[in-house]
Amino acid sequence: MIDDLAWLTAKEKFPVGLSVQATVDVVRPFGFFVTIPGCPATAVVDAIAYKPHGIPVNPTQWPAIGITFEATIADHVEHNRQIKLRVDASN
């Protein structure tokens, strides 16, 4: 987990609603972890938040490791200091 200052900085630099480029690092059954350039916090796309065509898709259709895509910052989760992303038809 990142320290207090890095977390505060990440939330300021990556506010809710900001559009970002993210690259898939790890795929899990519940979603996938991504890297956002310049962001020290862990970022994740939950299964329910990945709906590139307006509806959630089967995990077999999630982007593969190494794929970069556009997403929107959806939330800052305080208890584990994660940035949640969403991908929907507006991205």
Written overview of the protein:
With 91 residues, this protein is mainly β. It has one helix and five strands, in the order αβββββ. A five-stranded mixed barrel has the order 1-2-3-5-4. The longest helix is centred in the first third of the chain and has 10 residues, at 4-13. The chain is globular.
Mean pLDDT, all residues: 96
N-to-C series of helices and strands: HEEEEE
Morphology: globular
Main beta-sheet strand count, sense and barrel state: 5 strands, mixed, barrel
The total strand number stands at 5
Structural class: mainly beta
Radius of gyration: 12 Å
Distance between the termini: 28 Å
Proportion of β residues? 35-45%
Number of helices: 1
Helix content: 10-25%
Strand arrangement, major sheet: 1-2-3-5-4
Low-confidence stretches: none
What descriptive keywords fit this protein?
mainly beta; five-stranded mixed beta barrel; 11% helix
Task: Set out the fold topology.
Layout: H1 4-13, E1 19-28, E2 31-35, E3 42-50, E4 68-77, E5 82-87
Parallel strand pairs: 3-5
Antiparallel strand pairs: 1-2, 1-4, 2-3, 4-5
Tell me briefly what this model is.
The protein is mainly beta and 91 residues long.
